[in-house]
Amino acid sequence: FLLLLLRLRLRSPLRQEQREDHHAGGGEGGFLPARSPRPSMEGDVVSSIGVLIPGLPNDVAACILASLPVPHHARLRTICRAWRALLSVPPPALAALRLRRPRHLLCLFPQDPSLVPPYLFDPSTLAWLPLPTIPCSPHAYGLSNFVPVAVGAHLYVLGGSHFDARAYPADRPVPSAAVHRLDLCGAALAWDRLPDMIWPRGSFACAAVHDEGSGDQIFVAGGGSRHLMFPSDGSRVNSVERYDVGSEEWKVEAAMPGERAGCVGWVCRGREGEEEFWVMGGYGEYRTLGGVFPVDEYYRDGVVMGLRSKKWRRLGEMWHEGERRKLGPVVVVDGENGDAPSVFMLDRNDIFRYEMQSNRWLKESTLRRKFLGVESRGFVAMDGELHVLTSTMPPSNQVDFRRLPKKKATIEIQVYDPRKKKWRFLTITAPFCSTVDFNVAALCTIRF
Fold it and tell me: What phi and psi, each to the nearest 5 degrees, are found at residue 8?
């Protein structure tokens, strides 16, 4: 409350006039450097809606409501029409009203999203929000290896591998081309079915990019039909397609040089200023042990496509034989002030940074709490920091196993700041009564 009063004091007309005088005299004779004025929402949203909180000015009430945890916005929209109008504006406009900077949210899909609801987590307030499940199909079940991606305030779930009762044989997984979208700023949280992808696929590379000329785009590349129940089987594809968010259409792009599944992808600016779609790792061909057991041949290289030239180029091998078996989980940290993004990988108990000039993974740091070889872990980037997640279950002395456990699972997070080279720890209580297998779960981040 005191911080809010101080912030309002700084925003008073007298302080504003003083700051404008200083800015006008900025440069050689001014006390402060000239800055561009902060975009005002008063004339766009705040003044066009009704009274938010009786007894308070609308700009003050809007600042308070916009600073509340994002997972609670869905329930707050049902209070009145004015609150729904304010909390339904686009995230960039709502972030301009907050007392704090825009933040990342974590979206966690523990299992099949048509059976188990996904959850939205705000790390700044430790608040959870259960999201609705995806509409269940009467024929398909057991969805896995799908890819979630966020574009603005919209959450997309693309593809995957599932079982189809209409297929033959029925015990073999088939790839999915389904696309679902959830509007997190809508009045009612509900999934919408969008046009299917041209090629069904699961376990593929995916990246979202914003282009001022063509709008928001989603690129997908590679993938196949592999399912978690059959970890050494399935097809591979090399097709690439692009989804136009504005027109809601899928368009074919130039295919990759070779088939690749289980890969990761991201978009960044290349050396010549062109936006490029990077695809790394994954598996393609396989060999057999004793002529019976198939074993994947993991790639040690990557491929890059220019978004303007539509041409692919190959990268060399990123590590030597015997250094590591395959590429681990990869996350991208956006650069500041126009800098290039940083790419990090989690390999067992070490974090590596990708050096684009030398095409090598350099060791960045080691986890403070090391894991066993069989312990699953998640890896995401939020607010410029790297988060390593593990799920544990507190010990219970429950005798009657027919009852559900009362204790909730806990998630331990090791947070690493690449700029300060420092670690910190965080333990949170999960909203579910079972541990999360991060080898099965899917993670993505949403910026609000």
Answer: -65, -35
